[in-house]
Amino acid sequence: MGGIDFESSSPNSGNIEKESDVFEFVVKNGHGVKGLADTGLTTVPPRYIHPPQERIDRKDTIDSTPYLGPPIDISGLLELGGENKDEISKTLCAAAEKLGFFQVVNHGVSHEVMENAKRAAHIFFNLPREKKVPYLRENSPCPHVHYGTSFSPEAEKSLEWKDYLSMVYINDDEEVQKFWPTECRDAALAYLKSASKMIHGILSALLRGLGVDIDESTILSYSDARAVNMNFYPPCPNPELTVGVGRHSDLAALTILLQDDIGGLFVKAENKGWIEIPPVEDALVINVGDTLEILSNGKYKSAEHRALASTTRARVSVPIFVSPIPPTTIGPLPGLPEKHGKTVYRQLLFGEYKDNYFKGAHQGKATLDFAKVSN
Ligand SMILES: O=C(O)CCC(=O)C(=O)O
Ligand SMILES: [Fe+2]
């Protein structure tokens, strides 16, 4: 892992001692936290140090057994006339209700497709800065692709030890996809496409499992927009002082997360404590996002989660965020408030919810307050 190419970077590179220099170097000049890690620093700069209550310590986790079952084999859900469809659907609904996170196997995405997606993430983030800066939000040729670091650097007191690339997919419009970086376009598209059947199967099972009438076109409308993100957590000298991703719940209806073999994904279990979702070869992690919590009137949990960087290896994860498009109304499905005897969330546009979600720094589960009915 050599040093960074100071020649081609900013005028103040080579001197990133001051906090403002760190921000300039990592965020503004697009070196990312990868560029910072490559300088060979031995302690994280103050801007990366999180308050003690936000830091992640594996020793503080609680036993996952009551919350996280074994990976769920969903092959029967995806096959035509699959035998144990009902049983699988019930298992998925119970997991979405209990923790909001579960793992699936036999989901239709091949080992090769998953390996290629992770490899593409490593390839992209290992590119020289010059190849990545064209995708910074302010430079990006298309609103459907951007490269960045941390969640909302301008708004955050402490930054996340993470760079990411986000690629939005609406349909097979090659005009849009042609703006995705060539280094990861094919791998991201193959992953997205082979996950499609599983996404529909899981979303249908969860929505139908709510026990109210819902038609096929409504189910489909909640997954009209998909984004593949590639998260990159470079090796970190002090993972105990910083966070890879801070506490948040996802905006999406569903998230399909491909994590590598390093581990470090932690989920809050019913306010009892944090559990780690262990890497399982060929499994995908599925989690309920805020949108599905809202649609389900609070029955399914959009759990708070966060991620830890590793001292020795670069960790990658590749989530697919499955959402409606902005003009879609979200709110408890008709009939649910009556069934539950209460209305937890109001009806609002997904676009309104999204704008509020991205307004500032991560707020844990507080984002959901925006959609709560006022009492
Ligand atoms: O990297 C991970 O394991 C989690 C990433 C995550 O939570 C996200 O991208 O929303
Ligand atoms: Fe997340």
Automatic annotation (TrEMBL):
This is Oxoglutarate/iron-dependent dioxygenase. Signal peptide: none annotated. Belongs to the iron/ascorbate-dependent oxidoreductase family. The keyword Oxidoreductase applies. InterPro entries: DIOX_N, IPNS-like_FE2OG_OXY, IPNS-like_sf, Oxoglu/Fe-dep_dioxygenase_dom, Plant_2OG-oxidoreductases. Residues 221-324 form the Fe2OG dioxygenase domain. Keywords: Dioxygenase, Iron, Metal-binding, Oxidoreductase. One of its GO terms (biological process) is coumarin biosynthetic process. Its cofactor is L-ascorbate. One of its GO terms (molecular function) is dioxygenase activity. It comes from Macleaya cordata. It comes from the Eukaryota. The keyword Iron applies.
